[in-house]
Amino acid sequence: MAQRFGGICVLGEDELDLIVNKFSDPADRKSVSEVCKLWYKVESLNRSSLRLLAPGCPRQVMLNNVRLHIIHSVPISLISLAPNLRHLDLGSCPVVTDETLEAIGSSSSISYLNLAGCFKITDRGLGFLANGSVSKSLKTLFLAWIKGLTDVGVSHLHKMHCLEHLSLANRSVSEITDIGGVAISTIATLKRLSLQLLHKISDLTIRALARNCPNLEFLDLSKCGITGAGVRAFSGHPSLRTIILRFCEVDVSDLDHLVLRCPSLKSILLDNKKLEQMLPLIGTQTRSFVKGR
After folding, report:
1. Are 128 and 154 in contact (CB under 8 A)?
2. pLDDT tens digit sequence for 16-69
3. pTM (predicted TM-score)
4. DSSP label at residue 227
5. Could you tell me the end-to-end alpha-carbon distance of the chain, in angstroms, rounded to an integer?
6. Which of 246, 206, 197, 250 minimizes the C-alpha distance to 224?
7. Closest of 167, 117, 154, 109 to residue 135, by C-alpha
8. What is the DSSP string of 53-95?
9. Which residues partner with 114 through β-bridges?
10. What is the pLDDT of residues 246-275, one digit of tens each?
């Protein structure tokens, strides 16, 4: 609340908060934070993005335009520095652990979280996310290239009822199977899903996704253990626009079926070798949907 000292009116934190929120450009916010300590404090409490710098072995983070140094681990207190944090990118950070996820789980504002390549994360960490306040705000979650995850952890994610974008792309040694896949299919809000290289995912998961995820627009099944029978389950799906079937066991009849029966479909991506083999057999209508990659 503003206070008056003699003939001078001094703005309080509430008034400054309203002013700071009028600025969205990072350069403008930096200028605001340099006015004085009070302005810096108010601006810092309204930051919405946090990302790691220095690839490989990060030693500092950027909170909008303010660099904060990391000594041994991601300081959990960073979350409390920005109660309005919405975008958190910790991709490939070697010091992110399950304890870090426990702190993140207590946030009620984060909508974007990148944990791809954070190899110290386990199923326990996913439990913290799924059972914490963040499960009610998180819309985008990247969990790619984390080989320690199994069906136990992935099954926790069904509690994230507003999740729209999920990446579980992994290596062929992944222990994620249809148990985790079917659990994910219960997230009805999903719009984009990557299961790339999860070779233990089969048609069982694909049928469940087609049945339970009416909003799904993008699906990457590259090198999954699926067949044309699973792909055909998307007949009549109301939203699917792009499906990636690189190195999958599908044939021309499966593609024709999908093009004819899935009215929302815009593109099918195949690996270049399979596309070259199929191209002479693909009809004119289907050919306009199929691309190589």
Report:
1. no
2. 566 656 666 666 656 655 666 665 555 555 555 666 543 444 444 444 444 343
3. 0.80
4. B
5. 59
6. 197
7. 109
8. -SSSS--EEEETTEEEE-SSS--THHHHH-TT--EEE-TT-TT
9. 89, 142
10. 999 999 999 999 999 999 999 999 999 999
Closest by CA position to 189, among listed 229, 158, 168: 158
Buried b / exposed e along 178-213 (16+ C-beta atoms within 10 A): bbbbbbbbbbeebbbbbbbbbbbbbbbbbbbbbeeb
The DSSP call for residue 40 is: H
Contact in structure between 280 and 258 (CB atoms under 8 Å)? no
Residue-wise DSSP of 145-212:
T-TT-BHHHHHHGGG-TT--EEE----TT-B--HHHHHHHTT-TT--EEE-TT-TT--HHHHHHHHHH
- The whole-number pLDDT of residue 26 equals 61
For residue 56, what pLDDT is reported? 47
Alpha-carbon distance 202 to 77, whole Å?
Answer: 41
The pLDDT tens digits of the residues spanning 76-113 come to: 656 666 677 888 888 888 888 999 999 999 999 999 99
Q: Is 236 helix (H, G, I), strand (E, B) or coil?
A: coil
Q: Which residues contact 197 (CB under 8 A, 6 or more apart)?
A: 169, 170, 171, 172, 174, 222, 223, 224
The token duo for 182 is 């079917």
Alpha-carbon span 195 to 206, nearest angstrom: 10
Phi and psi at 215, nearest 5°, equal: -95, 0
Owner of token pair 């079917």? 182
